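Please review the protein record below. Tell me whether the encoded fold seems credible here:
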Amino acid sequence: MFCNKTNVNILTSHLLAAGIEDAVVCPGSRNAVIVHNLNECASMANDEHPFRLHPVTDERSAAFVAIGLWLATRKPIVVCVTSGSALLNLLPGVCEAYYRHIPLILISADRPAEWIGQLDGQTLPQPNALLPYAKCWNIADDASEAELHRYCNEAISATTAEGGSPVHINVPLHEPLFTFTTASLPVIPDLSSPILSEGKAASLATALSESSCHFSSELVTALRNAQRPAIIMGQWEEAPIPAITALQSLGWTIFAENISNQHIYNDTLPAEGIDLLVHIGGALVEKRLKLQLRTLTDLTIVRIDESNECPRTFGHVEHKVKAHPSAALEQIVALLIQESPNKEVHNCNISPISVSSQPLELPIEALFVGNSTAVRWANQHLRLPVPTYCNRGVNGIEGSLSVAAGYSLQAHGTTLCIIGDLSFFYDANALWNQQLTDRLRILLINNNRGDIFYRLPHLSESPALDDYIAAHHNSDAHGIAESYRCTYLTAHSADLTKDINTLLHRLLDEPSKRPVILEVTID
């Protein structure tokens, strides 16, 4: 039986119709009726129409767990929280999803608006609380059924906007709450805007089905006349783009980091002499390259993405192409081949080149790297032919472990997370999850401080560096591992780059039923 709240039942119908398969649910009384309905859906699930609940007690972790689930499933993920500050705890993960175009459906239960400011517990203004990162639809329990259907349809469809976007559905509920007497969910009427069940994948399919992208005549001329064209690719979480290898065979210079997931690795991009730069993907890790490119004012820069935004990462942009990069780059290849029909194009896969001293073969499905020093170290020393992910949308250290944990919940193989001590301890509640298994393996690099701060020019001159900026500490993860029933291993390394192969094989080979943590103390 479902609940007797019309707005909750209509919302549930729309989630099922949209093909939602995973929901992260947090505890609470006001959202209990929503969680009840989602649990009813899970009890009716089957192999053809799966529906899974993932309980996460800490709302600060919940949105990040959902990001990980999306990376594993590539379908919109529901996050359901109770009223009050529970919703606000989602904000760091929501803004990360916004900048990475990840379609999360954030559902918050709410208390009656008339009790806001009346000293009533867990009651605060919730509509639009996640702006500008997630547009809000308020589906009140006194709205008409027609309005409720329209709002739910609009909200879920909006997850595909501009390449993918989180949305917020706020659900005000009056008491009494806990009556579960409804035998079936409402039927969804025909609506003018179809519900899109594939989230970001739907927009990708649409983009690739387009016969052409719109290139201005000025851009076509710039592409034809470029003598030293290049592509710089930031964070990319979709499949590798075949057109990039084709452009490389046509003489283009390619710069792609490990989180670009192209498996084409260059230590440096020789910026001097480049006369045209195509910029795709999200954030870059390599700061020095960004600063160098910003000095080249005569460089023609082309930005390609599906959004209406036009980021000027390198100081200026001459041309913006609103299209999926796969479709746009494929058209560029066709244009250049048309100009030089005898030019041989090798549209083939390029094997990853490891820049570490020992190429590694690891039995893992995906690599997650904590932010800051960990992602930079892995970019230089741990190039692997598997998907590599990091919270480089906008986040700092928060959520790094939770995203890896979320991915592992739907992974088929092993998820490896390499993380620094501050990131690990900050997000340790990611392990407060009964569903986690041995598929999650964590290499914790502990040097008892935030090491990145010691690499910043002149910061070492500050007497506040050790205790107040770099957060020097004497903590270890043994107690955390014990509390969350994880297998705990420890080691010491004087040269992490030299020891990494041995350490990772030890971590991955350890038998366990729960996550395994190998804490490596380094000098």
Q: What stands out?
A: Confidence is low (pLDDT under 50) at residues 197-211, 345-359. Residues 59-73 form the longest helix (15 residues). The chain is about 30% helix and 15% strand. The CA atoms of residues 220 and 335 lie 8 Å apart.
